[in-house]
Amino acid sequence: MYKYILRRLLQMIPVLLGSTFIIFAMVFALPGDPTAGMCGERPCAPAFVAKFKQEHNLNDPLPTRYAKYMGNLAQGDLGTTFRDIKVADELKQRYPTTAKLAGMAIIFETLIGVIAGVMAGIRKGKFMDNLVLVSTLFVIAIPIFVIGATLQYYLGVKWGLRPVTVSPQATVNELLLPAFVLGSTSVAYVARLTRTNLVENLRADYLRTAIAKGLTRRRAIGLHALRNSLIPVVTFIGADFGGLLGGAIVTERIFNIQGVGGYLFTGIHNRDGVSVVGTVTVLVLVFLLVNLLVDLLYGVLDPRISHD
């Protein structure tokens, strides 16, 4: 087990280097002047522009700038934005809110998605199965900003059941609706994935053998079929957690959440490459660690899977 974890941690190094280099190259290849708007409506003076580029290493070749950035990153420095604000300080303020939002979305998609998938799987071809298939297809077909705006208007503005926006404190009560909106599409995917795998396992020979030997159908489904069916679901949820962290831009803007998504959008809009690269680097690290945790959970769901 420990050798497997060490091997996976070592495999993360080239993945981190490759992903950060691609993001670094793409961000700083975007057209535009990062000094635009810093001096009001007038263009900045040549002396200011020259000093700005010198301070932020914009005159150096791309490999040199990337090497300097990774050297600072190895010391725990995510860099300083073009407006002299530490990226790490911004993320410390915003990351807990986004992590809470994504965690609540994961809880929604796991509970609702798995329960709906199980109910559809054990009633294949009946009303519940058709209801889940049609409703999940309906949710997948609707863009998330439409779902968010619609629920915000009816539940928040018209009926007053939920807060319309989220305060800087971002309490759990305020994040319930945004988390449901953020995880709505994933709920549909988890439900359909659970249903498909459960239907397949219900036709397997080992399940019929277990029932023939006297095991009740409920216990056979819960103890054997469901555990095996959850392996691909856990894989999807683990990969989706990283996607929810980085893909919360739309949801955060709809509900005015001061999180990582809004910060990332602002960095892209202002052509602030340092803030974008720093934010994405943290997201990549979280994504890699979550996938390691998912791989370790495989052994819990199926003891036949060994990490030795």
UniProtKB/TrEMBL annotation:
Tree of life domain: Bacteria
GO cellular component assignments: plasma membrane
Membrane topology, as annotated: Multi-pass membrane protein
Keyword Ubl conjugation on entry: no
TM spans (from-to): 12-30, 101-122, 131-155, 175-193, 274-294
UniProt GO BP: transmembrane transport
Assigned keywords, A-Z: Cell membrane, Membrane, Transmembrane, Transmembrane helix, Transport
Entry-linked Gene3D superfamilies: MetI-like
InterPro entries hit by this protein: BPD_transp_1_N, MetI-like, MetI-like_sf
Stored Pfam families: BPD_transp_1, BPD_transp_1_N
Subcellular location: Cell membrane
Broad class of where this protein is predominantly found: membrane
Domain ABC transmembrane type-1: 95-298
Stated family: Belongs to the binding-protein-dependent transport system permease family.
Protein name according to UniProt: ABC transporter permease
Lineage per the UniProt record: Bacteria, Bacillati, Actinomycetota, Actinomycetes, Micrococcales
